[in-house]
Amino acid sequence: MIVLSLFLSISAGLFGWVFKGEAEIFSIYVVVIFFLFLPRIFYSDKQVRKVVSPRWIKELDYYAAFIILLNVPGTLYLYEINVQYDRLTHLSCAFLAFIIFTLLWLPTVKKLNFKKLLVFCFFMCILGLFLWEGVEYITDGFFGTKAFFDIGQDIVTDTTEDIFFGFFGLAFGFIYLSHNSSKVLCVLK
User: Fold this and answer.
1) How many CB atoms lie within 10 A of CB 18?
2) What is the pLDDT of residue 11?
3) Which of 26, 133, 159, 186 has the smallest CB count inside 10 Å?
4) What pLDDT sits at residue 110?
């Protein structure tokens, strides 16, 4: 999965930079590549390996690949034709990001109280959502681009909708993991 994710990230970033003249898209995909390797960096720590199995990496790769697979069509074309793909992306990617963030925090919890971990991850993801949307807003405003919002909308409406749909994606992720904790706890030793 990581090979597919790397290929799609590099391809989409280069396409956006070369054919659309949007260098900021390339820089975002470079950050994505860094995040793809982050779990492997964590897993190199002996303490982390004592807590989680090698399946932890595979689960993180799996969810990250789906986020990339959802974003690439938007980056390449779908955001430009105003098919509300942006809403779907923010809803589903926030759902998947919540699962990823919860998986990343699992090795740090000494005595696992899963409900408290979920609440912590939920609020941290909300903070991340606002920070991410702020970066998108500032980037488009600074560079004068429309790289991070639908062509048919103004930037304020798009940012508001992104936060709204992202929040619901996080809420769905919270509810899902509250009732399906085995989906992430299976990676623990």
Assistant:
1) 11
2) 86
3) 186
4) 67
CA distance 181 to 41: 25
Long-range interactions of 62-66: CB distance < 8 A, separation 24+: 62/1, 63/96, 63/99, 63/100, 63/103, 64/1, 64/5, 64/35, 64/36, 64/100, 65/1, 65/2, 65/4, 65/5, 66/92, 66/96
- The Cα 1–Cα 118 span in angstroms is 26
CA distance 99 to 66: 12
Q: State residue 101's pLDDT score.
A: 93
Residue closest to 137 by CA, chosen among 156, 151, 124: 156
Main-chain phi, psi angles of 52, to 5 degrees: -120, 150
Token pair, residue 39, equals 């779990």
Q: Is 64 in contact with 104 (CB distance < 8 Å)?
A: no
Sole residue written with tokens 């990617």: 93
Residue whose pair of structure tokens reads 């991070």 in the numeric block: 148
Instruction: Mark the ranges of the chain whose per-residue pLDDT is less than 70.
Output: 82-83, 110, 147-151
